[in-house]
Amino acid sequence: MTASFSRFSEPAGRALVVALEAPDAPEHLPDAVRGPLARALAVEAECGRFDARKGEHVSVVLPEGGPWRRVIAAGVRGLETEAPVLRAEMTGGLCAAAAAAAGESAVDVHAPRPDGAEPPEAGWAAHVGLGARLRSYRFDRWRTGAKPGGPARVETVNVLTEAAGEAAAAFPRLEALCEATALARDLTNEPANALNPDTFADHLGLLDALGVEMTTIDADALADRGLDAILAVGRASPHRPRLLVMRWRGRTQARPDLAVVGKGITYDTGGLCLKPVEQMKTMKTDMAGAAAVCGLMAAAAGAGLETDLVGVAAIADNALGGAAYRPGDVIRTAAGPTIEITNTDAEGRLALLDALWWVRGELDPKEIFSIGTLGGSGLFGLGLRHAPVYSEDGDLEARLVAAGAAAGEPLWPLPSYEEMDDTLEDSAIADFTQCPDFFVHGADSAYVHRLLRRYVDGAPYAHIEMCRLDSAIADRPTCPKGATGYGVRLFFEYLTGPGAPA
Asked: In what side-by-side order are the strands of the sheet with 338-340?
């Protein structure tokens, strides 16, 4: 989908979408539009079908000869409490959704900035355009035709604004973020028979085009480096594990500013600790952490950020087979300590600890983050709005939380305690136990952090638990049902917002 910007006095002769916070036609609309819209809104409001709540819409065919064929009222009431930029984006997304529901593929959008709202007019309009693009995302490469009864595909959105020139100038950076989010969504939506450790890099043509350096550490090279934990996870699969290392050199320096490591389990059966069928249905998305890292690299490169950024995708396929690793096995990690396997469905921490150890030892970044669903217990306390974050660096954690709030991907700091280490070390035959019994000790994701922190050797570090935030179970204002691309906006805001690392 393309987004453009023009002045309100220059309509392009297509359908018009008007964002409304109340069921009244705006006074400043042309009479040829306002009259028919006002009459339709009065009827719909009287019947209780339109109160301008977000997601509601009314479509009115206009008389021939006017600047627009049709006007569509899109309700946006209920966004007032959102962060300013997110309010603009959600407004744009709801306008795009209303256009699709009305069967329109090309529309003008009139979404005036509310009085006193931030950002200024040009920024508001640019983020309205971004929201429209984000909501218009589709993953349909496996369909042989249009989905029966589905909404139209919105191909063109033109945002009407008096600051058209300034909005257009601000949009390329946002467009890079949109393309990056789409990449993360595409990767997460892709079925596991098409996306596996062997083919993962084939889906990253965008990164190659943007000049991101990519290096693969294959299974033989992992073995040479003693990275046996991730190798154990993928031992039963014909698609062997690997680390995909990406680097964007927006500036030249000895140490990277930041490294983000993402969990990339392209399918998680649970291994010998087999998942029940209802849980297994969505396990193609267990690589969403790696997808977020790939999206972040695309956003940084597309926006030309002046930063030295490293992304690492820890990629494996947790399959069943005679070679599968087992509960009771002991694995020696590259860092030295041994781990007793207690649950083959807790494979993510094994993949990440090897990747963290490698990136800390080989590249020595100034800050390190990891992201993925490793201990879903955070979901029970925080639901589908916030992601848990664990860190022992208060300043880093505070900046990350602020970035999440601004990006619409909020985080909630959760504690982990030193006494948890005693439980981790309570193996009868190895240095650590892979994961304590959840039904005895609880707080599984906190134990994940206590384990992973040992593999960054004291570097500033935070771990983000995605839980189920990688997918939307229903349409959202800026995201259709399916993969969300969670994490891309969060880290991009961390790199570019007020609290960005120096």
From this structure: 330-332, 338-340, 432-433
Q: How far apart are CA 183 and CA 185, in angstroms?
A: 5
Active-site residue, 349 included: yes
Lowest mean pLDDT, pick from 197-206, 395-404, 415-424, 484-493: 415-424
Average pLDDT over residues 8-36: 87
Predicted confidence at residue 100, as pLDDT, reads 96
Closest by CA to 403, choosing from 485, 494, 464, is 494
Length of the chain: 502
Domain parsing of the chain, residue ranges: 2-162, 182-495
pLDDT surpasses 70 at 10:
no
Per the annotation, the verdict on 275 as an active-site residue is yes
Instruction: Determine the pLDDT at residue 11.
Output: 61
Q: Which residues pair with residue 479 across a beta bridge?
A: 476
State the CB neighbour count (10 A cutoff) for residue 14. 18
Q: Give the Cβ contact number of residue 497 at 10 Å.
A: 14
The two beta strands, 471-472 and 482-483, are: antiparallel
CA distance 407 to 487: 9
Q: Which of 34, 225, 275, 332 is catalytic?
A: 275
Q: Residue 75's pLDDT is what?
A: 97
The active-site residue out of 70, 185, 349, 450 is 349
Residue 34, Cβ neighbours under 10 Å: how many?
A: 17
0.85 exceeded by pTM: yes
What residue spans of 425-474 are helical by DSSP H? 438-441, 444-452
pLDDT at 437 (0 to 100): 80
Multiple choice CATH, 182-495, 2.40.50.140, 3.30.1070.10, 3.40.630.10, 3.30.1380.10: 3.40.630.10
Q: Please give the structure tokens belonging to residue 375.
A: 């201990």
CATH code of the domain made up of 2-162: 3.40.220.10
pLDDT above 90: residue 370:
yes
Cα–Cα distance list, 158 to 122, 168, 182 (Å): 14, 11, 20
